[in-house]
Design a protein that fits this description.
This protein is of the alpha/beta class. The chain has helices spanning about 15-25, 45-50, 110-135, 135-140, 145-155, and strands at about 1-5, 30-35, 75, 95-100.
Length: about 170
């Protein structure tokens, strides 16, 4: 199964999702990421965070959804809602779900506040990916309706340490 993490710029959230998913996923499951208007570069704080978490950053780069290496079976949009951010809509037969996370690239403040925004985005995405990977994946591959329901439910979840905050 190919999972696409999709956002506009493909520099932070979708890269965090792709790398984290690939780090945790079982054999036969592969993530990729893309943007509708890619920035052309991965945010250095995303790469630094992944490295601190022990997740390889090799081979990750900002790319367009027109240059995907494979056809996605699942598309997870990760654009945030509260900043009135327009999330791209992937057109195709994939199961689609929205896992909104605020863009840490727009965080303001000092290094500590900006690093905290990146860590929050990572923690939300990692938690949702972990919940996804706990599902009966083989059974869900055969039941697209149930898969969509589960993905939509997971897209609303936050780790208990962030309960009460918005994604």
């Amino acid at each position: 199964m190919n999972v696409l993490f999709l956002c506009t710029g493909n520099s932070c959230r979708s890269i965090l999702g792709e790398a984290t998913f690939n780090h945790l996923a079982p054999p036969g499951w592969q993530a990729m990421s893309a943007g509708s208007k890619p920035t052309g570069k991965v945010h250095p704080r995303s790469l630094a965070l992944l490295e601190r978490e022990g997740i390889s950053t090799e081979g990750y780069f900002s790319k367009s959804w027109n240059a995907l290496p494979a056809t996605p079976d699942i598309v997870l949009s990760v654009c945030g809602n509260t900043a009135n951010e327009t999330c791209p809509v992937y057109l195709g037969p994939a199961v689609r779900s929205h896992w909104g996370v605020e863009d840490p690239a727009h965080a303001e403040g000092g290094d500590e506040e900006i690093d905290a925004a990146f860590m929050k985005a990572y923690r939300i995405l990692r938690y949702r990916i972990e919940q996804f990977l706990r599902l009966p994946l083989n059974a869900l591959q055969q039941d697209r309706g149930r898969l969509k329901t589960e993905l939509d439910r997971i897209g609303t979840l936050l780790p208990s340490s962030l309960a009460g905050e918005s994604a």
